[in-house]
């Protein structure tokens, strides 16, 4: 079986696997002559959908038929769709097209993909994670698991140059998301009386709406304004084609400013050639607040682990090529900053993790070596299982999780959210509690599951005019994930114990409820709230006390 790691990025994606020597290698995108795939989809017509650099090249001429930055939309509650040729596409379906293109890259080179691990920002909640997994499945991939992007990057670093008892801060600035994660790397005994390299996530923070695109937008507005000033126009008078021309040249200008102090952008405005000169200082001035936002997340994440000393800082993500980023991070951590494969490290780490999961499931290497041979014709010894067995990963829960129940004791008859599993706990995490029906002879229980950003034991959510809890509560980042219906037999007394269990891993939340009187078990793997028809009947709740 063949396992791969996929970095599904906002602007670029990447796929990797372990070679026969146990070294992570990126599968080259020969069609685009690149190690990455542009996460851009062009709907040329109803019979032809293009993914990659060729799609990106159509932004200037057919921008209204191009979809990019879809990672910022996946799993979001607004339910945005993209309409082309009489068909609507969800962010999950767009992402599936990108993943299917990565799959095709491997297959076009004679490879096969049996299993994959897909990376996600550490700050993604359940809905974003579930939507990412769905996209993989829709693309025809067997998704073994998800892994947080900073964790994958640390795994790649660990495989390359591990040093014992190192605490690493991963600064991950991608095209559309930002994560900062503190990770402990150490040696730990395994069951075979040996040692494995253990990666433990200590703290994480970030924003899934902050990334290189924000720098691009600032540069776009700067060039647009300069074109207007040069030609005596307002921004509303700039034609759509001209805007697309500017947008298509922004990324190239940003890259040049990472190498040079000054660059020029030439734009045709109403038939007249306009030349805009941009200096690195101008660009840094325009985006200083964005750099500051990332460093604020660094500070707030460090506050979660006040006694930890950072030994190394890894810069991950293509946007960390910008000199302003490295400068800001080095000022905070002088002499500790390293940058290795910033746009490939995440995919390589995911490939290692995929092989780790294959070893644990199969008991042997999850990959096969069909064509790699030594110069004398002998098969290459497959060292992938050996490398994958050297590591163990201990990640954290990205949110707090628990059910909504009625508190008949401390907050009498108040609907509250009990956090079984709190943000930052070791993952996978499991927790159980016992509840009771609201009244005698209750026919069913609708057990609602929530996620939130609070570390409190319980929250009182917002309610509507009828007193029912709202699906979202911005004050605590509360989201309704879904519900589990528990049917009760006739004549069930309200003293009946209902044992509720939440299980959280990188892929989602599993909820189980057991009627201890009958042994009846009800369970569900939660994906997204939009999949669930929520019944707000107050009588169908659980309560905390048996009194």
Protein described:
There is one protein chain. The protein is built from twelve helices and 31 strands. The strands form seven sheets. Strands 18-17-12-13-14-19-22 form a seven-stranded mixed sheet, with helices on both faces. Strands 1, 2, 3, 4, 10 and 11 form a six-stranded mixed sheet that branches. The protein has a six-stranded antiparallel sheet with strand order 25-21-20-24-27-26, with no helix packed on it. Helix 5 packs across helix 11 (345-362) and helix 6 packs across helix 7. The chain is globular.
Keywords:
547 residues; alpha+beta; seven-stranded mixed beta sheet; 12 helices; 31 strands
Task: Please mark out the parts with pLDDT under 50 across 5 or more consecutive residues, or reply none.
Answer: 360-376, 528-539
How large is the count of helical segments?
A: 12
Overall strand count:
31
The shape, in one word, is globular
Structural class: alpha+beta
Rounded to an integer in angstroms, the radius of gyration calculated over CA atoms is 25 Å
- How much of the sequence lies in strands comes to 25-35%
Oligomer: single chain
**Can you list the strand order of the major beta sheet?**
18-17-12-13-14-19-22
Give the overall average pLDDT.
Answer: 85
Question: What's this, in brief?
Answer:
The chain is α+β, with helices and mostly antiparallel strands and 547 residues long. The chain has 12 helices and 31 strands.
Helices, strands, pairings?
Layout: E1 3-7, E2 12-18, E3 24-26, E4 37-38, E5 40-45, E6 48-51, H1 53-56, H2 59-62, E7 66-68, E8 82-84, E9 87-89, H3 91-108, E10 115-120, H4 126-138, E11 143-148, H5 149-161, E12 166-173, E13 178-189, E14 195-207, H6 212-231, H7 240-257, E15 262-269, E16 272-279, H8 280-286, H9 288-303, E17 312-316, H10 323-332, E18 337-338, H11 345-362, H12 384-388, E19 391-396, E20 400-407, E21 414-418, E22 426-427, E23 429-437, E24 444-452, E25 458-459, E26 472-473, E27 478-487, E28 498-505, E29 508-515, E30 521-526, E31 542-543
Parallel strand pairs: 1-10, 10-11, 12-17, 14-19, 17-18
Antiparallel strand pairs: 1-2, 2-3, 2-4, 5-6, 5-7, 8-9, 12-13, 13-14, 15-16, 19-22, 20-21, 20-24, 21-25, 23-28, 23-31, 24-27, 26-27, 28-29, 29-30
Helix pairs in contact: 3-4, 5-11, 6-7
């Amino acid at each position: 079986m063949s396992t791969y790691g996929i970095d599904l990025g906002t602007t670029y994606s990447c796929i990797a696997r372990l070679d026969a020597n146990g070294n992570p290698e990126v599968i080259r995108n020969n069609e685009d002559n690149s190690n990455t795939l542009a996460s851009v989809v062009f709907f040329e017509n109803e019979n032809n959908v293009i993914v990659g650099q060729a799609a990106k090249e159509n932004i200037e001429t057919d921008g209204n038929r191009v979809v990019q930055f879809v990672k910022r939309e996946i799993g979001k509650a607004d339910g945005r769709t993209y309409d082309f040729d009489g068909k609507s596409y969800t962010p999950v379906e767009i992402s599936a097209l990108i993943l299917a293109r990565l799959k095709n890259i491997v297959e076009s080179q004679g490879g096969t993909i049996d299993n994959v691990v897909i990376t996600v920002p550490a700050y993604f909640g359940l809905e974003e994670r579930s939507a990412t997994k769905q996209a993989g499945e829709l693309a025809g991939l067997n998704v073994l698991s998800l892994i947080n992007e900073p964790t994958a990057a640390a795994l790649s670093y660990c495989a390359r140059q591990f040093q014992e008892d190192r605490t690493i801060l991963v600064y991950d600035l991608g095209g559309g998301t930002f994560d900062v994660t503190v990770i402990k790397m150490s040696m730990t005994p395994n069951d075979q009386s040996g040692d494995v390299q253990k990666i433990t996530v200590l703290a994480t923070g970030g924003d899934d709406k902050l990334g290189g695109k924000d720098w691009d937008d600032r540069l776009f507005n700067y060039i647009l304004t300069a074109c207007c000033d040069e030609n005596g126009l307002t921004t509303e008078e700039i034609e759509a084609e001209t805007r697309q021309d500017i947008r298509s040249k922004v990324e190239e200008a940003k890259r040049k400013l990472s190498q040079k102090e000054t660059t020029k952008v030439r734009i045709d405005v109403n038939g007249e050639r306009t030349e805009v000169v941009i200096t690195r200082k101008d660009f840094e001035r325009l985006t200083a607040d964005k750099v500051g936002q990332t460093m604020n997340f660094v500070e707030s994440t460090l506050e979660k682990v006040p006694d930890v000393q950072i030994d190394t800082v890894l810069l991950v993500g293509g946007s960390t090529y910008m000199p302003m980023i490295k400068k800001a991070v080095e000022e905070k951590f002088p002499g500790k900053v390293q940058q290795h494969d910033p746009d490939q490290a995440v995919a390589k780490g995911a490939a290692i993790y995929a092989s780790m999961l294959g070893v644990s499931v199969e008991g042997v290497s999850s990959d096969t070596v069909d064509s790699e041979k030594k110069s004398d014709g002998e098969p290459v010894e497959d060292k992938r299982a050996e490398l994958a067995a050297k590591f163990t990963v201990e990640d954290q829960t990205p949110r707090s999780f628990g059910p909504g129940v009625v508190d008949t004791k401390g907050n009498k008859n108040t609907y509250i959210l009990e956090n079984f599993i709190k943000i930052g706990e070791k993952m996978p995490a499991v927790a159980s509690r016992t509840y009771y029906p609201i009244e005698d002879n209750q026919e069913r229980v609708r057990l609602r599951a929530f996620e939130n950003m609070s570390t409190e034991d319980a929250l009182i959510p917002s309610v509507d005019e009828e007193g029912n809890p709202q699906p979202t509560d911005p004050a605590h980042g509360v989201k309704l994930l879904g519900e589990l219906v528990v049917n009760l037999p006739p004549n069930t007394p309200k003293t009946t114990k209902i044992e509720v269990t939440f299980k959280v891993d990188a892929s989602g939340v599993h909820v189980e409820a057991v009627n201890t009187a009958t042994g009846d078990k009800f369970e569900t793997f939660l994906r997204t709230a939009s999949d669930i028809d929520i019944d707000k009947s107050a009588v169908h709740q659980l309560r905390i006390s048996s009194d």
